[in-house]
Amino acid sequence: MPTVVVTGANSIVGIGYAFARLLCNKGCNVYAIDRDNGNGLKALESKAHTATVDVTSPESIQAFKQSLGDTPIDILLNVAGIAAGPQSDGLTTTNLDILQRTFAVNTYGPLLLTQALLPNVLRSSNPKIGIVSSRVGSVGDNSTGGSYAYRASKAAVNSIGKSMAMDLKDKGVVVMLLHPGIVKTNILPNETFPADAAEADEAAKMLWENIVSKKDMADTGKFWHHLSTRQAMASSTPKDGNPAVPNLPYFTPRHAADPGVPFNASSSTPTLFAPLKIRSKILRNRIIVAPMCQYSTAATGPDIGKLTDYHVATLGHYALKGAGLVFIEATGVQPNGRITPNCPGLWSDAQTESVKRVSDFIKSQGALSGIQLAHAGRKSSTIPPWIAASFKKPSVRASKQAGGWPEDVAGPMGGPENSWDGKGLAEDGGFYPPRQLTVSDIQETISAFAQSARRAVEAGIDVIEIHAAHGYLIHQFLSPITNRRTDQYGGSFENRTRLLIEVIEAVRAQMPTDMPLFLRVSSTEWMEESDLGKKYGSWDVESTMQLSRQLPALGVDLLDVSSGGNHPQQRINMFSSKDYQTKIANQIRQMMKAHELKLLIGAVGLITEAEQARDIVEDGLDRSIGEEAIAAKEMTDAKGGREPMADVILVARQFMREPEWVLKVAWKLGVDVAWPSQFLRVRFPKI
Questions:
Q1: Last residue of a domain, one of 192, 216, 235
Q2: Beta bridge partners of 606
Q3: Do 351 and 431 belong to one domain?
Q4: Same domain, 332 and 454
Q5: 41 near 50, Cβ under 8 Å?
Q6: Which of 73, 271, 510, 669 is most deeply buried (CB count within 10 A of its CB)?
Q7: Cα dihedral sign for 208, 211, 213, 219?
Q8: Mean residue pLDDT across the chain
Q9: Claim to verify: residue 292 and residue 228 sit in the same structural domain
Q10: Which residues are in the NADH:flavin oxidoreductase/NADH oxidase N-terminal domain (predicted)?
Q11: Mean pLDDT in residue range 277-300
C-alpha cells in the first residue's frame, strides 16, 4: 500500500483532488493537503488523511511534517498551483506582486515541501517525487502568449525538478516533471477549453499509470512528460530487482501491488473491496481477521505469554493473502486474565517485543495489525480445547501443574455457585469457582488494561480492541445475572457498565488520538427467556443499544457485534445459527444513525460465502448468489434507500480453513485484485 502525499487536493474539478480520490479507491495511504479547507478536502475526509497546509509557509509545512512523524513517503506529488489569468498576467499588466505570488506557490512551494519531507521520502524503498507542471514552461512551446508570471514560474519549477533529479538519483529517488497538457480545471474562472482537453479524472488516471503502475511514460498528447530519467529510475531498484520492505531486520519482498486491493476500482466494485479510513488508519478492504484463540504460547518460564514464530506464520499468512486488518487473539492483561495457561499476555514489558515482531510482519504485507486486550474472569484457568476434547468434555480446569491458577480465578461474584457452569469443584465441572474482586482489585485490572494498551502502542499495533463479550470478565460485570454486587460496580445499568467505561477511558488515554479503538460486545446473552433472565434481568440488545450511544463520546470507533457466551443456559447455539448476529448489527447501526451518532459497526458470525460477505457491506447489487447467502442478501440489500448492514465484516474460522479467503471471495465476485507477488503464478483462473 503506497503512501502518497498530494498537494493541491481541494478543487473537486482539479487534478490533485482527482488523483487523491483515485488513489484512495485503490487502497493507497493518501495524505491530501491544500491551503484551503474546502469541498475537495471535505469530500476526501472519509478515505484519506486531510490537512490544511500552505506550501509557501515553512511553519505550516513543519506542522504537517510533525503529524507525519517517521512515516515513509513513497510518492510526493506536488500539484498545487495558481494563475492570475490573461487580464492580470499580460504584457502590460504583469507586475512584481503577481510574479511573487505566482512564484511562491508554483515554484517555491514544491521546493520548500520537498526539502521538509525529504527524510520521509528517503525512508521509502521505491521513492518518487512528481511535480505537475505545464507545457508552457518549455521554451519550445509555441501554443500561446501571455501568462508571463505563470509561464515563468513553470519554467523555473522545471529547472528545479531537473536539479532534484540529478541531486537525488544516487539516493534512488525518481524525480518526474509531469505535464498533463490541457486539462479542464477551475484554476481560472470562466476559462474555455478546446474539445480535446482532458478531464481531471483522465489526467489522474495517467498519473496513476505513469507513477504507480510503473508503465513507460510515453507522450500521449494529453499527458506529456518532460522528465523521467531512466538512469534515476534504474537506480531506485536494488541490483537484484526485488525491492525489500523497509525497516525490517530481515528481507521480505515488497509486493508489486497490495494484495486484496482491486486493480481498477469503480462504482461497480463491491463495497467489500473499498478502502475504509478509521482515524489515521486505512483498511485496504473491509475484511478483518477476527481474534482467534490459538493456545500456542509458553505457560511458564521466561517466555510466558510471548507470541512465537507460530503466530508470525499464521497471522502473517492472513495478511499476505489480502486481509485488511489482522487481529492478534485475546491477550491477557494480567496473568490470571488468560483463558488458558497457553494464551498470550501483555502484562509485562518483556512481552512487547514478541507482539512487535508479529505486528511488523503483518504490516509488511500491507494489512493493519490489531490486538484484542482481554481478561477472562471466571472463565480462566482452563486447558486448551483439544485436550479437553480428549477427556470428552467441553472444558477442563487447568491445575497448578498445568500452569493454571486455581486459587486466583476471579469475577464480579465469588463462590462455587458462580463458577461458569455452576458446578463448582464437582468432578464433572469444567471451571474453577471464582473469588470476588474487591474494588482495589478492580482498579488494578483497569490499570492493567491501560498498561497493556501502552505496550501495544509501543509494539506498533495499529488498532486495539477491548474484549467485553463471550462471558469474560467485562461481560460478567455487564450482566445482571452474573453481577449482583451492591457496590458502585453492581446493580444499576450505570454501575454494571462502570468497569467497561473506566477500562475504555484508561485504554484510550494511552493511545494516540489518531489510533482506532474497537470494542467487542455480546449484544445479547440469549438469557431473556430463561428462569435466571426472568428473575434478574439479562444483558440484551436494548442494553447494548443504550451502551452504544455512549461509545462515540468515549473515543470508541467501531463496535464489534457478537453475542452469547456468558451462561450455559443461553437459548441459542451461536456456533450453528446463521445471520442472527448480522441482523442485530444492522439494528444497532440503524439506531445510531437515527440518533445522528457516528459509530462504525462490524458484523461477525459464520460469514463463509463470498456473496454473503459482499452483501453485508454493499449498497445494493443485484446478482445471482448461492443458496447459502440468500438470507443475508434479503436482509442486507440496500435497494430502496436501505443502508448496508455493517461497515466491516470480521471472519474467524473460515480463515483457518482457507487463509486465501479474501482472494477467493474476490475471484467468486469477479473482482480483479492484486495477489502476493510470490503467488502470482497460482492465481485463480478468470471465471
A1: 235
A2: none
A3: yes
A4: yes
A5: yes
A6: 73
A7: positive
A8: 84
A9: no
A10: 272-619
A11: 94
The bridge status of strand 128-132 relative to strand 174-179 is parallel
Look at the block and give the residue holding cell 450511544.
549
Exposed, middle or buried: residue 525 (CB in 10 Å: 0-12, 13-18, 19+)?
buried
Domain termination site, one of 171, 203, 235? 235
Indicate if 213 and 344 belong to the same structural domain: no
Length of the chain counted residue by residue: 687
User: CA of 527: how far to CAs of 69, 248, 523, 530, in Å?
Assistant: 49, 49, 12, 5
Q: What per-residue confidence (pLDDT) applies to 226?
A: 31
**pLDDT at residue 632 greater than cutoff 80:** no
Number of domains in the chain: 2
C-alpha cell at 522: 455480546
pLDDT, one tens digit per residue, over 399-429 is: 999 999 999 999 999 999 999 888 889 988 8
329-333, 507-511, 636-640: range with lowest mean pLDDT: 636-640
- Please indicate, yes or no, if residue 203 is contained in any of the structural domains: yes
Confirm whether 602 is domain-assigned: yes
CB 613 within 8 A of CB 651: yes
Chain segment 92-122, per-residue pLDDT in tens: 888 999 899 889 988 999 999 999 999 999 9
What is the reported pLDDT for 228?
Answer: 29
CB 273 within 8 A of CB 285: yes
Measured CA to CA, the distance from residue 190 to residue 201 in angstroms comes to 20
Judgement on whether residues 214 and 66 belong to the same structural domain of the protein: yes
User: What is the CATH classification number for the domain harbouring 564?
Assistant: 3.20.20.70
Tell how strand 183-184 and strand 174-179 pair up. unpaired
Same domain flag for 24 and 128:
yes
Q: Which amino acid is at 317?
A: H
| Residue 538 DSSP code | -
What is the tens place of the pLDDT at every residue in 49-95?
999 999 999 999 999 999 999 899 989 988 877 777 666 778 888 89
What one-character-per-residue DSSP string does 194-252 give?
-TTPEEHHHHHHHHIIIIIS-------SSSEEEEE-HHHHHHTS-TTS-PBPSS-SS--
How many CB atoms lie under 10 A from the CB of residue 96?
8
Asked, for residue 33, whether it belongs to a domain, the answer is yes
56 with 148, same domain?
Answer: yes
Residue 426 has φ and ψ, to the nearest 5°, of -60, 150
Q: Which residue has the higher pLDDT, 245 or 322?
A: 322
Name 493's Cβ contacts closer than 8 Å, sequence gap at least 6. Answer: 543, 546
Closest Cα to residue 183, out of 233, 126, 135, 112? 135
Separation of alpha carbons 56 and 120, rounded Å: 19
Q: Cell numbers at residue 518, please?
A: 474497537
Give residue 333's pLDDT.
Answer: 99
Q: Which long-range contacts link 635-642 to residues 24+ away (Cβ below 8 Å)? A: 635/579, 635/582, 635/583, 635/586, 636/582, 636/586
Query: CB under 8 Å to 193, separation ≥6 — which residues?
Result: 182, 184
Residue carrying C-alpha cell 512515516 = 71
CA triple 226-232-233, angle to 5 deg = 85
What is the sign of the dihedral through the CA atoms of 21, 22, 26 and 31? negative
Whether 576 maps to a domain, the answer reads yes
* Nine-digit cell string for 177: 516533471
| Domain with 367 in it | 287-376+407-413+424-621+651-656
CATH number, domain of 195, equals 3.40.50.720
Which residue has better confidence, 212 or 598? 598
Residues linked to residue 354 through DSSP beta bridges, in sequence order: none
Amino acid type, 242? N
Whether residue 189 is found in the same domain as residue 297: no
Strands 558-562 and 517-522: parallel
Q: Judge whether 226 and 164 are in contact, CB under 8 Å.
A: no
Return the amino acid letter for 610: A
